[in-house]
Write a structure and sequence with these properties.
Blueprint: E1 8-14, H1 18-29, E2 34-38, H2 46-49, E3 53-54, H3 63-82, E4 87-88, E5 92-95, H4 99-108, E6 116-119, H5 121-127, E7 136-139, E8 143-145, H6 147-154, E9 159-162, E10 171-172, E11 175-178, E12 181-188, E13 204-215, E14 223-225, E15 229-230, E16 237-246, H7 247-253, H8 260-270, E17 277-289, E18 295-300, H9 302-308, E19 325-333, H10 339-356, H11 367-376
Parallel strand pairs: 1-2, 1-12, 2-9, 5-14, 12-19
Antiparallel strand pairs: 3-8, 4-8, 5-7, 6-7, 10-11, 11-12, 13-16, 13-17, 14-15, 15-16, 18-19
Helix pairs in contact: 1-6, 1-10, 3-10
The structure holds flavin-adenine dinucleotide.
Residues 14-20, 37-40, 44-47, 49-53, 165-167, 189-191, 193, 195, 209-211, 229, 241, 243, 284-286, 333, 335-341 line the site of flavin-adenine dinucleotide.
Amino acid sequence: MQISKKSLFDFAIIGAGISGASTAYFLKKYGKKVVVIDKGKIASGGSGAAGAFLSPKICSNSLYTSFVNDAFAYSIDFYKENFPQFLNQSGILRLLKSKDEIEKCKRYEKNLPTSFKYLQANEIKDIEKVACEFGGYFFDDGATVDSIGVIKSMLCDIDVIEGLHVENLELKDGYYNIADIKAKGIVICVGKSDDFDEISYIKLKNIYGHRLDMKTSSHIPFHLHKSCSIGASDKGIVHIGATHIPSYSYDSHKDFTYKIDEMIELAKSYVDFEDFEVKNIHFGARNSTLDFFPALGAVIDAKETLRKYPYIQKGTKVPKDKYIHRKNMYIHSGLGARGFVWAPKTAEILARNICENIPVDKKLDTQRLFLKYAKSSFIYG
Ligand SMILES: Cc1cc2nc3c(=O)[nH]c(=O)nc-3n(C[C@H](O)[C@H](O)[C@H](O)COP(=O)(O)OP(=O)(O)OC[C@H]3O[C@@H](n4cnc5c(N)ncnc54)[C@H](O)[C@@H]3O)c2cc1C
């Protein structure tokens, strides 16, 4: 969309991946005038590379599992209601890797938020040409979304500027000035980036991965997930994908096709494809916080807060309303391996925080990450 010079906005959202697009979508619902800015194109980061599977987590009854499973249920309803044309709800079969995993999953069944069926190995082989020694869990609700389609659609009536690399968030006379844009507030949705000092207290780590669009005459009736994911057939195309390359390993190769062959071999070991031709390769990184919960909420001015309350570094508690925050600056990041599961829920939480002052849950709020940073940067002396 063309932007008029010196446009005024309530919020400039930096990053046009799923976190930026969903934030823009919810802020707009609250009547805010927003612009989304990306150094590349819409969905040119990790979001465009994602297979965008929406599946529940089978795990012990931890806070993390319950947050993820709430977000999963929310995301299915959200995409079904607002973007049904991009949702492929063919069900997901989560293949198990060992006898131990079968035992574990049986214990965790009670934590599942959705209907499921355990299928024995022989039942799965009957369904498709799927190699599976230990059976798997089938979730009727399991789905994928078309990652690029859904992001573009979320942004279809929102101002977007592509090809603008934002490096400086300067506040002058109450506005952040970015090229010809003036915005009263900023939401940082850039994934892992060293571009902004303001968020350097939030530690994120990257893992790289691929999605391949494969042409095949084999028909895959539902989505499959094990160490790599295989999507259900859609007009003769099957997506296979995995995040399988740690950043240190990518940094030493700098080759975006690195380990593709391994991933194809893995996919072939799950499904006996009749034929297989790579049509497109998508590559990108996902980013996670160290505790795997998203990084959400108001950005803390880490330096100023520590200058005023240095004893935070020794573990002394200071009420959150005493913290110094960057003016009207927020973050929505660290969505990890489940960005498309988290984003609708976390974007709505952030919009409610910004527009209605409803606090962000402390497991998601970046305050926890600030406290970790403060303690780790404490110099004993
Ligand atoms: C191979 C792969 C498979 C995945 N599979 C799944 C899956 O099945 N299910 C699921 O839910 N999730 C999956 N994920 C995870 C999911 O894709 C991520 O959690 C999600 O994309 C993160 O979105 P984001 O918007 O935070 O980051 P990104 O999509 O990386 O977007 C950040 C954007 O910010 C822009 N940017 C960065 N710095 C600047 C700057 N200084 N100025 C302007 N713009 C900037 C970038 O160009 C980019 O477009 C997968 C990820 C990968 C890589």
